[in-house]
């Protein structure tokens, strides 16, 4: 619990602060220096060896491939339908406030690539290291059934994303990742399942945006399509899980029930080094990363400041076409300012004008 509290404080104090400078850089910074760095620090400070404690030993090719495939199938069978239901039932204002698509709007190609790599590669590794490696193992230490720790770590994992719309979908994902860790004895299948989920989500998001498909649920065709996903995806998911009983090697070497349920004993290598000595390398690396970003991309920081100073009301899907065109033009203007093709003042002026629009004006 102490590790979770420390990460949460660090997340709010540094991760969110850095993300106000630039979303793309902030996501990467949060994953590396908060989830991975602070998790690593907590383990070393308590005398544990991070790689062994978090079960980062490679389990073999079969469990890793199985984890990736399971992540893909689970997305269509459970995650997408649960997210669809949540978006349909929750107030529209919530969907607007917690619309993850906002972080992609007005970004340059380099920033977009940074976000994609962070979400599909960096986040699965760093988040699984902390939530299933550090936090889950800490919950198991006092003893008790493993699935209790799986569920609690899944709930905390979802809460950390600060997204009530996706809360239940992420809880299910957390349970899946925890189950993979318990059954395989390695963190890598969970990391690959996490990667698969984020990768599929990203591909579908960009495909829908390219085809200009509606982002919000509601049509009868969407409901029928989602029902088909549940039926087909559920059948494939059941077949995959059934295959693990017929081919146990899919989950790696067999483990006894006692081994699956027993708490893992802490691995003490040496007395904990002084806390400051452990923290200094991570602190220096974080400061260096921030300094490098500030020196390399001052324009991006200024744009982020403009965005923060002039927040925008979301434009609902049913709003007049003119309002949608106006907002799209603003995002294109931001990209031009990002490239240095127009003065920052031109973008700031238009952003300020649209920011002053009342909520009723965009409905």
From TrEMBL:
<keyword id="KW-1133">Transmembrane helix</keyword>
<feature type="transmembrane region" description="Helical">
    <location>
        <begin position="112"/>
        <end position="135"/>
    </location>
</feature>
<keyword id="KW-0472">Membrane</keyword>
<feature type="transmembrane region" description="Helical">
    <location>
        <begin position="64"/>
        <end position="86"/>
    </location>
</feature>
<feature type="transmembrane region" description="Helical">
    <location>
        <begin position="147"/>
        <end position="167"/>
    </location>
</feature>
<dbReference type="GO" id="GO:0080120">
    <property type="term" value="P:CAAX-box protein maturation"/>
</dbReference>
<feature type="transmembrane region" description="Helical">
    <location>
        <begin position="187"/>
        <end position="206"/>
    </location>
</feature>
<dbReference type="Pfam" id="PF02517">
    <property type="entry name" value="Rce1-like"/>
</dbReference>
<feature type="transmembrane region" description="Helical">
    <location>
        <begin position="25"/>
        <end position="43"/>
    </location>
</feature>
<protein>
    <recommendedName>
        <fullName>CAAX prenyl protease 2/Lysostaphin resistance protein A-like domain-containing protein</fullName>
    </recommendedName>
</protein>
<keyword id="KW-0812">Transmembrane</keyword>
<dbReference type="InterPro" id="IPR003675">
    <property type="entry name" value="Rce1/LyrA-like_dom"/>
</dbReference>
<dbReference type="GO" id="GO:0004175">
    <property type="term" value="F:endopeptidase activity"/>
</dbReference>
<dbReference type="InterPro" id="IPR052710">
    <property type="entry name" value="CAAX_protease"/>
</dbReference>
<feature type="transmembrane region" description="Helical">
    <location>
        <begin position="226"/>
        <end position="244"/>
    </location>
</feature>
<feature type="domain" description="CAAX prenyl protease 2/Lysostaphin resistance protein A-like">
    <location>
        <begin position="113"/>
        <end position="200"/>
    </location>
</feature>
């Amino acid at each position: 619990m102490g590790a979770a509290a420390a990460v949460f404080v660090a997340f709010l104090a540094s991760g969110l602060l850095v993300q106000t400078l630039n979303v793309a850089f902030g996501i990467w910074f949060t994953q590396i220096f908060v989830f991975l760095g602070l998790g690593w620090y907590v383990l070393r400070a308590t005398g544990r060896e991070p790689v062994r404690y978090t079960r980062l030993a490679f389990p073999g090719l079969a469990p890793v491939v199985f984890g990736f495939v399971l992540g893909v199938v689970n997305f269509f069978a459970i995650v997408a339908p649960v997210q669809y239901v949540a978006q349909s039932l929750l107030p529209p204002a919530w969907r607007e406030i917690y619309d993850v698509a906002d972080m992609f709007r007005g970004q340059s190609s380099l920033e977009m690539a940074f976000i994609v790599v962070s979400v599909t590669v960096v986040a699965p590794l760093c988040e699984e290291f902390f939530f299933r490696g550090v936090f889950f193992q800490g919950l198991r230490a006092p003893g008790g059934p493993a699935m209790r720790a799986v569920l609690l770590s899944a709930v905390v994992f979802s809460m950390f994303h600060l997204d009530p719309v996706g809360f239940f979908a992420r809880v299910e994902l957390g349970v899946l990742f925890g189950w993979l860790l318990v059954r395989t004895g390695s963190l890598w299948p969970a990391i690959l399942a996490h990667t698969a989920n984020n990768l599929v989500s990203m591909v579908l998001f960009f495909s829908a945006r390219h085809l200009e498909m509606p982002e919000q649920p509601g049509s009868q065709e969407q409901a029928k399509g989602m029902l088909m996903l549940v039926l087909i995806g559920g059948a494939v998911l059941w077949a995959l899980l059934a295959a693990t009983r017929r081919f146990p090697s899919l989950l790696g070497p067999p483990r006894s029930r006692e081994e699956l349920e027993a708490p893992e004993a802490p691995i003490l290598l040496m007395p904990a080094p002084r806390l400051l000595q452990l923290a200094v390398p991570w602190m220096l690396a974080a400061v260096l990363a921030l300094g490098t970003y500030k020196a390399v991309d001052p324009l991006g920081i200024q744009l982020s400041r403009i965005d923060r100073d002039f927040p925008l009301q979301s434009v609902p899907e049913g709003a007049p076409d003119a309002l949608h065109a106006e907002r799209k033009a603003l995002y294109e203007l931001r990209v031009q300012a990002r490239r240095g093709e127009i003065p920052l003042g031109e973008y700031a002026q238009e952003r300020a004008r649209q920011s002053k629009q009342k909520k009723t004006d965009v409905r």
